[in-house]
Amino acid sequence: MVGSASAPCAPQLKVRWGVLGVAKIATQKVVPAMQQCARASVAAIASRDRGKADLAAIALGIPVSHASYEALIADPDIDAVYIPLPNHLHVEWATRAAEAGKHVLCEKPIGLTAADVRALIAVRDRAGVLIQEAFMYRAHPQWRRAVELVRSGRLGELRAMSGAFSYFNPDPANIRNVAAWGGGGLYDIGCYLINSARLVFGGEPRRVRGLMARDPVSGVDRLTSMLLEFENGHAIGVCGTQHVPYQRIQIFGTRARLEIEIPFNAPPDRSTRLFIDDGTDLCGASIETIEISAADQYTIQGDEFSAAILTGRPAPYPLEDSLNNMCVIDTMFAS
Q1: Is 23 helix (H, G, I), strand (E, B) or coil?
Q2: Which residues contact 193 (CB under 8 A, 6 or more apart)?
Q3: 208, 227 Cβ separation under 8 angstroms
Q4: Overall average pLDDT of the 99-127 stretch
Q5: Where do the domains of the chain lie, and which CATH numbers do they carry?
Q6: Is 108 a catalytic residue?
Q7: Burial class (CB in 10 A: 0-12, 13-18, 19+), 261
Q8: Buried b vs exposed e over 90-107: b needs ≥16 C-beta within 10 Å?
């Protein structure tokens, strides 16, 4: 197994990945992106429906399909597993994959409570594998440049951050709106606002406050507003699942403001933009545009995680970071 004590003497050039499920995010975004990785190959895909597994394998050019998740994680030719399953299944299948000796990259939220993540940390340590939550946006060069600008003092002293993330999906049968499956705006997209605020401020919030409006039919939160108090400033955010699609991040310093135009769903086929405004002209004449070359954040994420497996290094973003993020989410729900 790659990254384990039983690894062969000859170095393995690519991690062999298996995909648990044929979710749209996997078949339309993550798998095609990971097929462009230098250090990863997608070797198998599984579904509980044999026909769906076969069709996905054919459409994506994946050499092996499995008719069950169990068969994929038992496959000796698979080193790591990507999990795009519904939220309530993340902990179960991450645990089963890790206990089978597979490294795990799991979609967010990796669990539904901080206790879930603590359990996964114990599994990781016991099994000796890597497990990471797939907050893919962190791999995009625009975010690395944004954090660099904040740390460099280009904005002055960091004071505040505001964010918005929304889409429109009122269907009560949709997986994102089923409470028992971990649906709702905070789990689905609000987690990005919390994660990115922690990234920008470089620490954990001291206090958290939240407001929620729940859908009267599904019961999940369709509008959540959040306030996070950090040692050196505040982050505010709003996420919604039943209003106009939108996403934006604003970072405020004492000398300038930094805006990230498409912070989370950055297109892989065209450049992205950061805007820096020193505020001297409220109509925007003083805004400087920084263009970031096109990049596929899923490809970068897959390559960096695979490189950690191949070299025996820790995961780029360990589960301890996921635990801190989930602690904030738990507090937000309680608030």
Answers
A1: coil
A2: 163, 165, 226, 235, 237, 239
A3: yes
A4: 98
A5: 15-136+300-317 (3.40.50.720), 141-294 (3.30.360.10)
A6: yes
A7: middle
A8: bbebbbbbbebbbbbbbb
Average pLDDT, the chain: 96
Host H or E run for residue 224: strand 221-230
d(CA 331, CA 185) in angstroms, rounded, equals 15
Task: Note the pLDDT tens digit of each residue in 131-184.
Answer: 999 999 999 999 999 999 999 999 999 999 999 999 999 999 999 999 999 999
* Dihedral (CA of 222, 225, 230, 233) sign: positive
Residue range 36-70, pLDDT digits in tens: 999 999 999 999 999 999 999 999 999 999 999 99
- What is d(CA 248, CA 162) in angstroms, rounded to the nearest whole number? 8
Q: Which helix (H) or strand (E) holds 31?
A: helix 31-34
Burial classification of residue 160, based on how many CB atoms lie within 10 Å of its CB (0-12 exposed, 13-18 middle, 19 or more buried): middle
What whole-number distance in Å separates Cα of residue 184 and Cα of residue 123?
27
Judge whether 223 and 212 are in contact, CB under 8 Å. yes
CA distance 24 to 301: 18
pLDDT above 80 (res 19): yes
| Residue 17 clears pLDDT 50, i.e. is over it | yes
Helix, strand, coil in percent for the chain, rounding step 5: 35, 25, 35
Q: Which of 14, 24, 29, 108 is catalytic?
A: 108
DSSP state of 295: -
Q: How far apart are alpha carbons 238 and 166 in whole angstroms?
A: 8
pLDDT of residue 12: 74
Two tokens at 326? 């989930």
For 161-170, how does the pLDDT look when each residue is reduced to its tens digit (9 = 90+)? Answer: 999 999 999 9
Which of 213, 212, 189, 193 shows the shortest CA–CA distance to 201?
193
